[in-house]
Amino acid sequence: MSSQKRLKKIGLFGGTFDPVHFGHLRMAEECRAKLELDEIWFIPAYRPPHKDWTPSPFEKRCQWLKQVLGDTPGCRILDIEKERDEKSYTYHTLLELHKREPGCEFYFLTGADSLEKLHTWYRWEDILDLCYFVSTSRPGYTGELPEQLRIESEKRKYGIICLPIDALDISSTGVREQVALCKDVKHLIPAEIIDEVNSSMEVKVEGYKAILKKRLSVKRYTHSVGVANTAAKLAGMFNGDIERAYLAGLLHDYAREVPNAELLELTMAHNLSSDAVDLLQPSLLHGPVGAWMLKEHGIMDDEAILDAIRWHTTGHPDMNQLAKIVYIADYIEPNRDFPGVELLRQLTYRDLDLGVVAGIEHTLSFLIQKDGYIHPLSIATRNRLLEERRDKNRN
Ligand code: ATP
Ligand code: MG
User: Are 236 and 242 in contact (CB under 8 A)?
Assistant: First the structure.
């Protein structure tokens, strides 16, 4: 009989888990059965190096995992990546685990999307000397092992295992989108976390961003995030509602890339405007149509946010502070670089109304120069703001 103790087979399941979903759980269960793992350790990433979005706070993501896994035997949640307070590289995590748990053999569990990106991971070749890199099937990905990876895998102590599983077509991005659309997510995530995920503003905001990424060019998406940040900053400066300003800024161009024919069609069908200038210049309709669509698609029903979106291009004499903020944030967000923008920024920071009037006047002179039609709402807005200023000065 051998005196050598059998190494414990540990599945390491790294991920952002924002939030954890049934696809993760199915994958873990299949790996445990097929690879005969003794335990699975979930390792939420503290600062995921490959994400181009802002995940929910680490503590929240861990809490959701705890609520879902409870005391499931053989499951642990490790917050090892938090201890390093830096970008969470799997290579470092594996080194640390080898140091702490010498009696274990590690299987790093991933979906096939990770295999496609493995060659970009920090010291990916060395990772294959520290664990089996398990790539399970995932809907939408071929799961094929690229030649470069196969060759490297054969040279390494453990290497890559491609493991076919009966995977579910669920992603955290998809969950976040459904939350933003106020749709039911009970078929996607466990009941224990539904209420919290549904009411998480971080999840919702990232859901909005995922939806916008599909509707807008990269440039316009970047502009939208710029407007959101600028609107939030202005709301902070002028004692406004920061969250609503951020959301209105983020969503203001929801319909900006809808074709003119569709803008006109929706405007007629739902009576969204009767102004002659809108019909001559249908792109002006992206505000009113965007507001209508956001409500219709179940994304937004906050009327103040919808008004701000509706009026963000033409202005409106009844604009409240939120609408003014979105109007001018659209003009001065950091990606804008027309001559005079810095002056407009400084003016706005001093006095929101002065900024809005200057923004409108900038539009008017631009339109006059290029023989463009002027929207009557822009003139009415300027007149109203001048009137209000005169009244204020008189008192
Ligand atoms: P996001 O959409 O935010 O990227 P995600 O659903 O991909 O989220 P992650 O936390 O990024 O979840 O994934 C952690 C790991 O789990 C990754 O290796 C990923 O490939 C794998 N994984 C996620 N969902 C599935 C699934 N439905 N089937 C198989 N593997 C999955
Ligand atoms: Mg992912």
Answer: yes
Q: What does the pLDDT look like over 295-304, one tens digit per residue? A: 999 999 999 9
What is the rounded distance in angstroms from the CA atom of residue 134 to the CA atom of residue 72? 22
Contact 305, 289 (CB under 8 A): no
Taking the C-alpha atoms of residue 177 and residue 117, their distance in angstroms, rounded to an integer, is 23
Please report, for the domain that includes residue 239, its CATH number: 1.10.3210.10
CATH code: domain of residue 152: 3.40.50.620
Domain span at residue 16 reads 8-170
Mutate to test the pocket of ligand 1, among 21, 32, 56, 113 (most ligand atoms within 8 A of CB): 113
Distance CA 218, CA 206 (A): 16
End-to-end CA distance of the chain: 99
Q: Is 137 in the pocket of ligand 1 (CB under 6 A)?
A: no
- Domain co-membership, 259 together with 330: yes
Domain edge (last residue) among 138, 170, 202? 170
Instruction: List pLDDT tens digits, range 109-133.
Output: 999 999 989 999 999 999 999 999 9
Structure tokens given for 202: 């971080």
Give the Å distances, CA to CA, from 166 to 29, 47, 109, 134, 137. Answer: 10, 29, 15, 15, 8
- Residue 61 CB–ligand 1 contact under 6 Å: no
- For 264-297, write each residue's pLDDT tens digit: 999 999 999 988 999 899 999 999 999 999 999 9
Are both 76 and 156 inside the same structural domain?
yes
Q: Give the model confidence (pLDDT) of 320-349 as tens digits.
A: 999 999 999 999 999 999 999 999 999 999
Q: Is the CB of 170 under 6 A from ligand 1?
A: yes
Q: How confident is the model at residue 54 (pLDDT cuts 50, 70, 90)?
A: confident
Q: What values do phi and psi take at 138, rounded to 5?
A: -150, 130
* Nearest by Cα to 94 from 104, 18, 85: 104
Strands of the chain, DSSP E? 8-15, 39-44, 75-77, 104-111, 132-136, 159-163
Sequence-separated contacts (24+) of 244-247 with Cβ below 8 Å: 244/302, 244/304, 244/305, 244/322, 245/322, 245/325, 245/326, 245/329, 246/205, 247/205, 247/208, 247/300, 247/302, 247/305
| Total domain count, the chain | 2
The two three-digit tokens of residue 394, written as one number:
């008189």
